[in-house]
Amino acid sequence: MTSQPHTAPGAANSLEALAKRIRFDLDCLNLPSPNWVPERRTETGEKVHDVVVIGGGMCGLVASFALRTGGIRNMRIFDRNPEGLEGPWLTYARMETLRSPKTLPGPAFGMGALTFRAWYEAQWGADAWERLDKIPRPLWMDYLIWYRNVLDLPVENEVEVTSVTPEGEFLRLELRGAGAEESSVLTRKFVMATGRDGTGHPNIPDFVSGLPKHLWAHSSEDINFPSLKDKRVVVIGVGASAVDNSAEALEAGAREVRHLIRRREMPTINKMMGIGSFGFTSGYAALPDEWRWRFMQYSFATQTPSPRGSTMRVSRHENAFFHFGQGIERVWNDGDEVVIETTAGKTVRTDYLILGTGFTVDPLARAELGDAAGEILLWRDRYTPPAGEESRELANFPYLNADFSFRERTPGAAPWLSSIYCFNYGASASLGKVSGDIPGISDGARWLAYSLAATLYGEDVETHWQAMLNYDKPELLGDEWTETELEDCAAMGAREPTYQTGG
User: Fold this and answer.
1) CA–CA dist 393, 362 (Å, integer)
2) I need a labelling partner for 288 at 20 to 30 A (CA). Which of 117, 294, 394, 455 fits?
C-alpha cells in the first residue's frame, strides 16, 4: 500500500508561509474582485442568490473560486456529505494513487502557489517531491481540504438539494440535511458540480435484479471488505474501479478473486491521453457534432484501461484471475451462493459479486429536477451517427449550450433549464474534458465563470446602464487648468504665421 510521508519539522510554518504567499498573489492581482452583480430580492423581501453551487469536491471548489475571483460573491455552496468527505476520495475511490501525473496543475487556476506541488513541497521539501511517483489518493483529499480552507470557500456541509423548480424568473431549491439553515433558497443560477455521477447514477446491470442484496455490491457502495476474508469473490469488469475493488478484496484476505470480462482482450491504451493539449481543450466544443461524437465514441469504444499500478496491485496475488470473453448471461442465487452463467457457456459459483461497471449518464435520474429532467435535450435528440459509430451510452449525454447550461427538448416546455449549469462528467460529450478530470478542470472553471458573468450582466444590462448614467464621481476637480479666452481671428488680421526653424 502507498503510505503518506511523515510530516517534516516546521511544516506548519511552511504551510502558513505558503498561505501568506497565496494571499499576497491574490492581492497583487486584485482578487477576488468586488461584487458587481446588482442585489435581487423578491416582492416579499426574500433574498435571491446569484449562484448556488452543489458539490464541495474538486469541481465545486474550483468553480466557486473562479466565480468569486470574477466578482460573483452572492453565492452559496452546498455538499450533502460531512466535511472532509466531499467527492469520492475517502469513500468509494479505492485506488492507491491518482492516475494523473503529479505535475498537472489541477484546480490551481493559474496560480503556482495553489498547486499540489507547492502544498507538498511546503511540508516535505523539494527532494521528497522528486522522489514522489504518483499522488496517494488520501493525500489528494488532504490537499483539497487545505485548498478549501486557504481560499476560505464557504462550503455548507450536510445540505442536500432535493428539488429545483421555477419560481418566476428565479429557481426555488428545496433543502434538507443536518447542515441546512433553511428549508429552501432562491437563486438565479444553479451549478451542478456533482462529479462522476453528476447527471446519472451507478450502472447496475439488470442481471442482479433478482439477487439478494447481501450477496452483491456496486463498486461505488460502502463494501465491508474484511467480511470477504476467505470468501470467493467475482468482479464484473476490468476498468479502474473494478481492479481497485478487486485489490481491496485480495488484500482483505479473499480466498480468490475472479474478473469476468466481456471483452476478449485487455484494453491497454488510453486514447484520450494521446490528444490532450491546449488546442483540444479550447477547440473541442467548437467542433461540428460529427467530430465531437467521433472523438468521444472512439474513446468509449476503445475503453480507458485501468492504471498499470492498479492492475499490478491485483495480479501480484496468485489467487487473482482474469477471464476474458466472459460476458454475463444470467445470475441467480443458490442459497448464499451466487451462480453466474457466462455468454461463453461457463458456470461460476462465488460467495460475493462486485460490479465494477462504472456509472451511466442518465439525466432522468436527477430526481431534484422532477419531470423537467425528461425535457433535457440529449445527444440522441440532435445527432444520428453513421453506421459503426453508434453508442447508446454517448447518446444519453445532455446536449449542452456552450456555457454548460442545459437545453430544453421541446421549445417553451422548460426554458428555466438554461439557468442550470452541468459542470460535471455529463458535460464531456458537448464540451470536452473540462468539468471533472484533473487536467482541464481550471480551464473549465474559468470558462464557466466567464459564461455566467456574461449572462448575469446581460440580464441586468438596464441596471448597469443606469449606473453608468448615475455615476458622478469626478476625476478632475476644476483646479487643474485655467481657461483662456480665444482671440477673435478676424480682429487679428490676415497676418501670416511665423515659423522658426533650427539652423
Assistant:
1) 9
2) 455
Whether 356 and 292 have beta carbons less than 8 Å apart is answered as: no
Q: Mean pLDDT for the chain? A: 94
β pairing state of 337-342 and 347-350: antiparallel
Q: pTM higher than 0.70 for the full model?
A: yes
What three-state secondary structure class fits 79? strand
CA distance 198 to 192: 7
| pLDDT, tens digit (0-9, with 9 covering 90-100), for 450-503 | 999 999 999 999 999 999 999 999 999 999 999 999 987 666 555 565 555 554
Apex 470 CA angle, 466 and 473, nearest 5: 145
**What does residue 230 show for φ and ψ, rounded to 5 degrees?**
65, 10
Cβ atoms of 86 and 92 closer than 8 Å: no
The reported pLDDT for the residue numbered 274 is 84
Q: Give the DSSP per-residue string, 91-131.
A: TT---SB-SS-TT--GGGTT-GGGSHHHHHHHHHHHHHHHH
Question: How many Å is the maximal CA-CA distance in the chain?
Answer: 119
* Burial tier of 134 (Cβ tally within 10 Å: 0-12, 13-18, 19+): middle
CA torsion angle 107 113 115 121 (round to 10):
-160
What whole-number distance in Å separates Cα of residue 66 and Cα of residue 52?
13
Distance between CA 244 and CA 254 in Å, rounded?
A: 14
Q: CA-to-CA distance for 156 and 162, rounded, in angstroms?
A: 15
Helix (H, G, I), strand (E, B), or coil: what is residue 464?
A: helix
Report d(CA 232, CA 250) in Å as an integer.
10
- What would the grid cell of residue 328 be? 454475463
The answer to whether residues 146 and 119 touch, using CB atoms and an 8 Å cutoff, is yes
| Residue 218, CA distances (Å) to 221, 341, 492 in order | 6, 19, 97
Q: Angle at which helices 58-69 and 137-150 pack, to 10 degrees?
A: 20
Instruction: Give tens-digit pLDDT for 72-96.
Output: 999 999 999 999 999 999 999 999 9
Look up residue 92 and give its three cell numbers.
Answer: 468509494
Virtual torsion, Cα 9, 15, 18, 24, nearest 10 deg: -130
